[in-house]
C-alpha cells in the first residue's frame, strides 16, 4: 500500500479523522501480516532495526497528518513547533520486538502561538484508533528533571531516548537536560540498578526454558551494563569501549550472543502472535525451523550458551565499572588484613580479585582453590578475568589431578564448581563435561541442562534436608564422600549419545577416575552407582518393590550394603537437583521404605544371586530377535513370569517358544518326545493330578523335573526320564497323561525310605516363598509320594527343581507362603516323613 498517496487523497477530500485512522489501521495490519516474510528474508538478522524504522515512519506520518489536519495549507516548519516525539526503552535502542509496547515520550514547551495540547491529543487519538500499542509519556521540558526524580524507571528510560520526529530545536534543548539527569545522584542510581539486577537474576534463574528478556544472561543483563556505561560516560553504544574496557574479541562474542537472543525473541513473538519471551517447549520446534537450526537441541544449546556469554560479559564489566561505588573505606583495611595472595582478598566469605592481578595458570588456580577454607564461599565476578579457557587448556598433570581430587573431597564443593562454570572452564578441567555443556534434557522432568543440573545436585548434597540421607552421608568415610561427590557430579555426563546414558556415563567415570589416586574397589563401586543411578527412584516410584522379584532384582545390581547407602544419597541429590519442589514427603517416604526393604533383603545371598542371574538372562532376552517380534503387551507378560529359575534354565528362543505355546492354551496341552530319552512337557490351567501321573510312571527313573508357574494360572511341567520308550509304550504314556487330569484318580505307591535329616523347610527363603529341600537316595516312586503329599496338604508348588546325580535325589520346591505353612513347618515335615 502506498500510504502517503492514500493519505493525500483523503486529505484532499477533507476526510474525517476515523477514515484516516482506519487507513492507518489497515496499513499497520498489512505490515504485521508481512512480518514473517520480512523475518525469513535473512532469518531475523537486522529484523528489529528494520521493524523499528518502519514504526518510526508510521509515527512520523501520523504526526505529519495531525499537522496537516490542524493547520490545513499553512503548516509551519516542524522545528518551529515545540513538540518532539522521542523513542524510549527497546524502541529507543532500535530493539523493539513485534508485540512489545511502543514506549513513546512526547516532549513539549508551551507556546502562545500553538495549541500544543490539542496537537498532542490529536496524535494520541489517531495512534490509538489505528491500533498502535503505545506506552506513552507526555512531559513539558521543564518537568523532565522532576519526573526523573520520582521514579528510577523513568530516569532509566530517559537514558535510551532517541528523537523520532518533531522539533530538532526542542531536542537540542532537551539533550542538556537529559545529561544533567544522567549526572545527578549517579551513585544512588547505580547502587539501585545493582540491587534491581540482583533481585531479577534470583527471580529468573537460568533454565532450559529461559526468559529471553529477564533470565540470567537475558536482554536485561545487556541493558543493565548499558545503563551503567551510559551513567558513567554518557556513551550510547557499548562498542565505543571496545579495545579499552574490553577487547574487540570479547565484544564480538558478546554481540553475536546478543544478536541470537534478538532473533529468538522475535521468532517467539511471531510464532505466538503475542508478547512471548519464554522459550517454552511448545514453541521450540517452530523457532528451530524459523532460525534454520539443524535440531531443537542445537537451538537450545546455542541459546543457553549465548545467555552464559552475556551473563559472563556483563557481570564482569559491570563489576569493574561499579567497584568504586561498592567498596566502603572501612572494608579496605579488612581486605588487606584478609589478603589470600597477591591481588586476592576475602571479605565475609566472598573472594575478591584486583583487576590488576595476572591471569591464573592452571596449577596456580588449583593450588589457590585447594588452599581455601572448606566452607560455602562466594566468588565476586572480578575473578572471572583471571580464569580463562585459554589459560586452562591442556591435559592435567598427575600433580594437578591430586589437587583436583583434594577439591572433590571438600564438604562445600558447589561454589568451586560453579566458579568453573561461570568462567567457562568446567569442560577444560573436567573433560567428561565437554559434550554435555548446555545440553538440554527434553524429558518432561528436568528443568535444567545437564551441566547445570549436575552442579545443582552437588549443591543439594551440601544442604541435605532428609534425615536418613544426612545420617548416611555423615557415616561415610572421607574416601567414600569424595567418591560420592565425583559420582554425583558425573552421573549424567553420558547423555547426548545414542547408547543408554547410564552405561556411557559409567564408562566415562571409570576412565576418568583412573587418573586419580582412587582404589580399584571404589572405582568399581562408582561405576556401579552411575550405571544404576536412576534405578532407585524408578523402582521406588514405578514398581511394586514389596514384590520380592522386583526387590531382589534391584538389590542384585548393588551387591552390598555400602553401595546401597551411597546410592540412596546419590538418588536424594539427583532428585533435588531437578528443583526445590521435586523431593517431597511422598517420594521421600517411598525411597525410605525401599531402602529399609533392601537392607533387610541384602543378606539373602541366594535370592540376590538368583535375581542377578535372571537379570542377565532378561537383558539377553530383550535383545533377542524372537522376543522383539512379540508385541509390547506380550513382552511385558513374558517378563512378568515370577520364577527366576525359568529364565535361568531356558535360553531366549526357548522362553519365547514356551510363551507362544502357553498363549494359545485351552485347558491343557502336552508333548512327548523320546529321542534319546523320554521327555514330557505339559501346559495346563486346570487341576493336574501330578501325584497320580508320577505314580503311574514310577517304573521309569526321573532324571529331572521342572515346574514353573507362568501367568494367568498357567503352569508348565517338564519331566525328563533316564530311559527311552518304544512307540507302543508312548501310547500308554499318553493315556496316563490324559487320565491325570481326572482328580478322582487314586494310586497306591510303595513307601520309599528317607531319613529325618534329609528334608528341610526354609521359611526365610523370601517374603513370598518357602523352600523345601530333599537330599536322599534315589528311589522309585519318591517324587510321586512327595507330590501326593503336597496335594493332600494343599501345598501349592510355584517352582520345582528335581535332579538326580549319582543315585542321589536332590530336589528343591518353592512353595507359596500362604495359610499356616510356616507356622506348621515341623508338622509338615513330620507328615511327609510319615507319608513316605
- Cα end-to-end separation: 106 Å
Helix % is 40-55%
H/I helix tally: 38
Shape: elongated
Percent in strands: 5-15%
Counting helices, strands and paired strands, the structural category is alpha+beta
Chain-averaged pLDDT: 91
Give me the Rg, rounded.
Answer: 40 Å
Q: Write down how many β-strands occur, each being a DSSP E stretch of 2 or more residues.
A: 16
Strand order across the biggest sheet?
9-10-12-11-15-16-14-13
Task: Profile the largest sheet.
Answer: 8 strands, antiparallel
Note poorly predicted spans: none
How does this structure look, described?
It contains 38 helices and 16 strands. Strand 15 and strand 16 form a beta hairpin. Helix 22 crosses helix 28, helix 23 packs parallel to helix 25 and helix 28 packs antiparallel against helix 29. The model has no long low-confidence stretch (mean pLDDT 91). It has 836 residues and is of the alpha+beta class. An eight-stranded antiparallel β-sheet has the order 9-10-12-11-15-16-14-13. It is elongated and about 130 Å long. 54% of the residues lie in helices and 11% in strands.
Amino acid at each position: 500500500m502506498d500510504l502517503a498517496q492514500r493519505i493525500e487523497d483523503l486529505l484532499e477530500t477533507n476526510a474525517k479523522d476515523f477514515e484516516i485512522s482506519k487507513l492507518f489501521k489497515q496499513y499497520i495490519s498489512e505490515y504485521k501480516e508481512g512480518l514473517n516474510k520480512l523475518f525469513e528474508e535473512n532469518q531475523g538478522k537486522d529484523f528489529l532495526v528494520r521493524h523499528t524504522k518502519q514504526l518510526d515512519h508510521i509515527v512520523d506520518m501520523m504526526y505529519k497528518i495531525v499537522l496537516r489536519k490542524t493547520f490545513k495549507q499553512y503548516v509551519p516548519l516542524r522545528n518551529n513547533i515545540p513538540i518532539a516525539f522521542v523513542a524510549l526503552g527497546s524502541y529507543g535502542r532500535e530493539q523493539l520486538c513485534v508485540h512489545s509496547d511502543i514506549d513513546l515520550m512526547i516532549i513539549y514547551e508551551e507556546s502562545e502561538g500553538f495549541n500544543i495540547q490539542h496537537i498532542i491529543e490529536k496524535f494520541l487519538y489517531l495512534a490509538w484508533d489505528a491500533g498502535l500499542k503505545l506506552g506513552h509519556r507526555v512531559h513539558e521540558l521543564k518537568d523532565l528533571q522532576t519526573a526523573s526524580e520520582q521514579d528510577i524507571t523513568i530516569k532509566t528510560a530517559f537514558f535510551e531516548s532517541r528523537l523520532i520526529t518533531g522539533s530538532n530545536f526542542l531536542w537540542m534543548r532537551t539533550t542538556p537536560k537529559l545529561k544533567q539527569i544522567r549526572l545527578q545522584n549517579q551513585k544512588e542510581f547505580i547502587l539501585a540498578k545493582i540491587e534491581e539486577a540482583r533481585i531479577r537474576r534470583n527471580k529468573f534463574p537460568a533454565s532450559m526454558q529461559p526468559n529471553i528478556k529477564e533470565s540470567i544472561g537475558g536482554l536485561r543483563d545487556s541493558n543493565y551494563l548499558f545503563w551503567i556505561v551510559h551513567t558513567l560516560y554518557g556513551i550510547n553504544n557499548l562498542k565505543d569501549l571496545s579495545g579499552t574496557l574490553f577487547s574487540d574479541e570479547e565484544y564480538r562474542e558478546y554481540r553475536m550472543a546478543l544478536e541470537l537472543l534478538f532473533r529468538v525473541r522475535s521468532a517467539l513473538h511471531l510464532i505466538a502472535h503475542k508478547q512471548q519471551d519464554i522459550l517454552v517447549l511448545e514453541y521450540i520446534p517452530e523457532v528451530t525451523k524459523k532460525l534454520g537450526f539443524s535440531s531443537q537441541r542445537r537451538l537450545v544449546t546455542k541459546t543457553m550458551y549465548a545467555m552464559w556469554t552475556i551473563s559472563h560479559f556483563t557481570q564482569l564489566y559491570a563489576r569493574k565499572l561499579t567497584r568504586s561505588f561498592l567498596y566502603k573505606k572501612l572494608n579496605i583495611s579488612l581486605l588487606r588484613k584478609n589478603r589470600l595472595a597477591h591481588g586476592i582478598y576475602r571479605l565475609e566469605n566472598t573472594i575478591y580479585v584486583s583487576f590488576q592481578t595476572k591471569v591464573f595458570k592452571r596449577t596456580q588456580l588449583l593450588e589457590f582453590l585447594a588452599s581455601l577454607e572448606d566452607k560455602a564461599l562466594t566468588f565476586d565476578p572480578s575473578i572471572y578475568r583471571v580464569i580463562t579457557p585459554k589459560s586452562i587448556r591442556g591435559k592435567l598433570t598427575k600433580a594437578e589431578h591430586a589437587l583436583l581430587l583434594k577439591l572433590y573431597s571438600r564438604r562445600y564443593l558447589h561454589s568451586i564448581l560453579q566458579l568453573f562454570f561461570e568462567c567457562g572452564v568446567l569442560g577444560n578441567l573436567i573433560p567428561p563435561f565437554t559434550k554435555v555443556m548446555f545440553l538440554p534434557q527434553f524429558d518432561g522432568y528436568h528443568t535444567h541442562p545437564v551441566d547445570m543440573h549436575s552442579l545443582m545436585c552437588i549443591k543439594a548434597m551440601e544442604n541435605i534436608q532428609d534425615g536418613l540421607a544426612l545420617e548416611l552421608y555423615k557415616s561415610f568415610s572421607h574416601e567414600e564422600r569424595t567418591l560420592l561427590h565425583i559420582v554425583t557430579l558425573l552421573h549424567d555426563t553420558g547423555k547426548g549419545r545414542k547408547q543408554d546414558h547410564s552405561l556411557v556415563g559409567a564408562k566415562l567415570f571409570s576412565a576418568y577416575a583412573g587418573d586419580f589416586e582412587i582404589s580399584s574397589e571404589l572405582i568399581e563401586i562408582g561405576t556401579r552407582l552411575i550405571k544404576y543411578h536412576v534405578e532407585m527412584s524408578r523402582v521406588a516410584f514405578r514398581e511394586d518393590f514389596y514384590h520380592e522379584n522386583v526387590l531382589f532384582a534391584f538389590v542384585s545390581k548393588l551387591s552390598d550394603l555400602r553401595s546401597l547407602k551411597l546410592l540412596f544419597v546419590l538418588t536424594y541429590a539427583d532428585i533435588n537437583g531437578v528443583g526445590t519442589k521435586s523431593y517431597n514427603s511422598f517420594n521421600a517416604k517411598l525411597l525410605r521404605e525401599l531402602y529399609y526393604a533392601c537392607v533387610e533383603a541384602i543378606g539373602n545371598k541366594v535370592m540376590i544371586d538368583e535375581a542377578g542371574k535372571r537379570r542377565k538372562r532378561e537383558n539377553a532376552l530383550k535383545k533377542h530377535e524372537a522376543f522383539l517380534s512379540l508385541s509390547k503387551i506380550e513382552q511385558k507378560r513374558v517378563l512378568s513370569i515370577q520364577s527366576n529359575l525359568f529364565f535361568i534354565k531356558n535360553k531366549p528362543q526357548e522362553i519365547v517358544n514356551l510363551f507362544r505355546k502357553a498363549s494359545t492354551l485351552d485347558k491343557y496341552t502336552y508333548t512327548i518326545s523320546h529321542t534319546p530319552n523320554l521327555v514330557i512337557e505339559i501346559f495346563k490351567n486346570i487341576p493336574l493330578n501330578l501325584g497320580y501321573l508320577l505314580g503311574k510312571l514310577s517304573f521309569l527313573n526321573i532324571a529331572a523335573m521342572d515346574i514353573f508357574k507362568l501367568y494367568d494360572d498357567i503352569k508348565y511341567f517338564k519331566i525328563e526320564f533316564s530311559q527311552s520308550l518304544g512307540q507302543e509304550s508312548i501310547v500308554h504314556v499318553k493315556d496316563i497323561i490324559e487320565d491325570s487330569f481326572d482328580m478322582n484318580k487314586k494310586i497306591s505307591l510303595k513307601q520309599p525310605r528317607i531319613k529325618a535329616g534329609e528334608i528341610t523347610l526354609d521359611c526365610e527363603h523370601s517374603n513370598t516363598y518357602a523352600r523345601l529341600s530333599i537330599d536322599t537316595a534315589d528311589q522309585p516312586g519318591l517324587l510321586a509320594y512327595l507330590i501326593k503329599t503336597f496335594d493332600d496338604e494343599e501345598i501349592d508348588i510355584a517352582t520345582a527343581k528335581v535332579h538326580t546325580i549319582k543315585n542321589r535325589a536332590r530336589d528343591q520346591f518353592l512353595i507359596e507362603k500362604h495359610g499356616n505353612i510356616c507356622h506348621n513347618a515341623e508338622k509338615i515335615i513330620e507328615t511327609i516323613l510319615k507319608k513316605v
